[in-house]
Structures are given as structure tokens and as C-alpha cells.
Amino acid sequence: MSETLSITTPDGAFTAYVARPQADPAASPAPAIVVIQEIFGVNKVMRDICDSLAAQGFVAICPDLFWRIEPGIDITDQSEAEWKRAFELFNAFDVDNGVADIAATIAAVRAMAGVSGKVGAVGYCLGGLLAFLTATRTDADACVSYYGVGLEKHVGEADKLARPLLMHIAEKDQFVPPEAQAVILTALKDHPQIEIHTYVGRDHAFAREGGAHYDAADAAMANGRSLAFFKTNLG
Q1: Is 223 helix (H, G, I), strand (E, B) or coil?
Q2: Are 96 and 9 in contact (CB under 8 A)?
């Protein structure tokens, strides 16, 4: 069951895709998870993730974080032209505004009917960085970061982290080179709130179903860890 949520900020309004569990929300409020997009917008991959989380008993919400650049971006990773557009969007994107929009989404979600009050976040690629920053800058109850790009520049923010964070790192990530991974692991591996898993031999977006580097076994492993993490921390 899906719907569209409108979220208002001081800068304007944007929309989010919402997927709900089949159970009656009045009878059984569910925890919520904000799904943070890759560089392709709120596309079928993101909507499918929301639908899958809803099937697992969560209210899942994917906000349109590119709305300040162009609302309604919905492209794929299947053509050179779409990759070019995706990187244009990535380069034009303001990370601080993005985190502020995620915070606004979390606040709106907490007030939604059928939500228990617990709200987590999961992000991929650009969203993996934003999930880390959501963990350090917002009141999200638990966050999951998949192969965050540029995260090594922000590891100092972990000092502000007060709630659980799960991180998935692709060992052969073409967008997060070994020296960047070394910075991330050195800074974060002993943090009491952070759990990190590295996937040997995997490239960026190994959990993106249909992507060039998709690996079904490791995607299933990572997604299983994420589901268990959310059930523990949002229950």
C-alpha cells in the first residue's frame, strides 16, 4: 500500500514516496524507516526497497531530496545519458540542505498516523553518506549506511553520535578508494555505537538489484543484517 507524503520546510515543500504494511495501522502502529536515495532520485529501485521494508512490517518513506534542483527525478543506472545526469545532480546537491530535509522528513513521519514513534534511516551511495550524517545530526533512532561516498571527510562528526549506526562497506568500491576506507575504519571501528561490515571483493552498489555490480549473496547478507538491526533498535 503506497501513498505520497508532502513535507513542508521554510524553503518550500517536497514529496516523499510512502509504503505501508498491510496490517491495520490503527490496530498496530509500526516503526518507520526513511529510505535515502542514491544519485538517481526516487526511482523504482528506491520504491522497491520501500515496498520490501513495508512487507517486513515497517512504514517506509523515500523523500525527494533533489527537489531543490529539480523535483521528481526518476532515472536509472542503465544508460550513459542517465549516469551523466545523475552525476550532474550529485555535483549540484547541497549535503547540508539534504540532511535538513531528512530531519524534516523524520519529524513529519513521527507525526504520521500508524507510526509507532520510532524512526530509523537507511541510505545508499550518496544516501550512505547522508545516513551517516542523519545519525550524527538528527534524532533518528537507528541508521544504516550502504557504501557511503565522501564519508571519510565527515568522520569527525562521529563524536556526536548517540544512537546505533550500522555500516556496509564494499572492499573494492571504485568511489571509496582504499585510502578513504582506511580513514573511515580507523576513525570509526572502535566507536561504541557503530557496527561495520566490509564485503570482500565487492564493488560500489553491490546491493543494488539489477546493477552492474550486484551480488545476490552479499546483498542478502547485508540486507539481513540491516533488517535484524532495525528490528532490534526500532522495536
Answers
A1: helix
A2: no
Phi-psi group of 35: left, alpha or beta (phi > 0 → left; psi -120 to 50 → alpha; rest → beta):
beta
Q: Any idea how long the chain is?
A: 235
Calculate Rg over the CA atoms of the chain: 16
Full set of structural domains in the chain with CATH: 2-234 (3.40.50.1820)
- Choose the catalytic residue: 101, 141, 173, 218: 173
Rounded-to-integer distance, Cα 71 and Cα 231, Å: 32
Q: What is the model's pTM?
A: 0.96
pLDDT tens digits for range 9-67: 999 999 999 999 986 655 689 999 999 999 999 999 999 999 999 999 999 999 999 99
Query: Is 204 known to be catalytic?
Result: yes
Q: Which of 77, 101, 168, 204 is catalytic?
A: 204
Does residue 168 carry a catalytic annotation? no
